[in-house]
């Protein structure tokens, strides 16, 4: 699959969250006629937590681009013990 350049300006929504004591931000980018892109930011720049959050965001974005739905990720997170009541919006 060839990489497609996204437009420089696209709509997004960012929410501050706290999961397991870590503060972070979740940004969902919605380019026109394309699957959403998910960016997760947590921890300090260069930290293990920041790298892990970035990797998870990339994995979710790739899954969405290949047909997975947000509900698939919700179920997967619940299977590893993370539920919506543990996610605090700030």
Task: Outline the structure in words.
The structure is a single chain. The chain is α+β, with helices and mostly antiparallel strands. It has one domain (11-83). 31% of the residues lie in helices and 30% in strands. The chain is built from 2 helices and 4 strands, in the order βββααβ. The chain has helices spanning 48-65, 70-79, and strands spanning 11-19, 22-30, 37-42, 87-89. It has a 4-stranded antiparallel β-sheet with strand order 3-2-1-4. The chain is globular and about 35 Å long. The protein starts with 10 loop residues before the first strand and ends with a strand. The model has no long low-confidence stretch (mean pLDDT 80).
Strand order of the largest sheet: 3-2-1-4
Helix vs. strand class:
alpha+beta
Distance between the termini: 38 Å
The strand count comes to: 4
The low-confidence runs, each spanning 5 or more residues with pLDDT under 50, are none
* Tally of individual helices: 2
Q: Spell the H/E element sequence.
A: EEEHHE
Features:
alpha+beta, 90 residues, single chain, 31% helix
Concise structural overview:
This protein has 90 residues and is of the alpha+beta class.
SSE map:
Elements: E1 11-19, E2 22-30, E3 37-42, H1 48-65, H2 70-79, E4 87-89
Antiparallel strand pairs: 1-2, 1-4, 2-3
